[in-house]
C-alpha cells in the first residue's frame, strides 16, 4: 500500500488576501481503517456550545487526492479536526462512508513521520480532547 496525499482547499474570507487556503494531509497506512466513533464528533459539537476554545465551522471547499495508489473509496463528506497541545499542532482528516461511518484517512502536518499510529493512541487523543479540552489552546472542527 503506498502513500497518498490529500490537499484540502478552504474558502478564504474577507480578512485574508487569499481566495482560498489549503492544508496537505498524508494518508495513514492501515489494513483495517480506524473508525472514529460518532461520540467524539458529537462530544465536540456539544462542548463547543459551552467552551469558546472549541470552534466548529463549515469551510471545506474541495479535497483532492494524489498518489500512486489512489483509493477507490467514495466519501460522503469530510471532517477535519485541528488541535494544539503544548504548542504542537496536529490534525486529522476524517472521511465518512455509508458502510464504515467516519474513518481516519490522513494526518497533518504533512511532513510528520507519524503515518502509522495505533487506534488506541488515536482514541486516547480524542478522549483527551473531549475530557480535558481546557488543556488544549485551540480546537477546531471543520466540515
List keywords for this structure.
143 residues; alpha+beta; 42% strand; globular
Task: Give a short summary of the structure.
The protein is α+β, with helices and mostly antiparallel strands and 143 residues long. Helices cover 17% and strands 42% of the residues. An 8-stranded mixed β-sheet has the order 3-8-5-6-7-2-1-4, with helices on one face.
Helix proportion:
10-25%
What's the count of strands?
A: 8
Overall 3D shape: globular
* Beta-strand share of residues: 35-45%
Q: Are there runs of 5+ residues with pLDDT below 50, and where?
A: none
Reported for the largest beta sheet, the result is: 8 strands, mixed
- Summed up, the helix count is 2
Number of domains: 1
Q: Major sheet: order of its strands?
A: 3-8-5-6-7-2-1-4
- What's the multimeric state? single chain
Spatial gap, N to C terminus: 27 Å
What is Rg?
15 Å
Structural class by sheet pairing and helices = alpha+beta
- The overall pLDDT, averaged over residues, is 84
Order of helices and strands: EEHEEEEEHE
Amino acid at each position: 500500500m503506498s502513500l497518498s496525499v490529500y490537499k484540502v482547499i478552504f474558502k478564504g474570507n474577507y480578512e485574508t488576501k487569499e481566495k482560498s487556503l489549503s492544508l496537505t494531509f498524508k494518508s495513514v497506512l492501515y489494513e483495517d481503517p480506524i473508525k472514529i466513533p460518532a461520540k467524539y464528533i458529537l462530544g465536540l459539537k456539544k462542548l463547543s456550545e459551552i467552551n469558546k476554545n472549541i470552534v466548529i465551522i463549515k469551510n471545506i471547499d474541495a479535497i483532492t487526492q494524489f498518489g500512486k495508489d489512489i483509493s477507490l473509496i467514495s466519501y460522503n463528506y469530510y471532517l477535519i479536526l485541528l488541535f494544539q497541545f503544548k504548542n504542537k499542532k496536529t490534525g486529522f482528516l476524517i472521511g465518512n462512508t455509508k458502510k464504515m461511518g467516519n474513518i481516519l484517512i490522513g494526518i497533518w502536518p504533512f511532513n510528520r513521520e507519524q503515518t502509522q499510529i495505533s487506534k488506541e493512541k488515536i482514541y486516547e487523543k480524542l478522549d483527551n480532547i473531549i475530557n480535558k479540552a481546557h488543556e488544549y489552546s485551540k480546537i477546531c472542527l471543520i466540515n
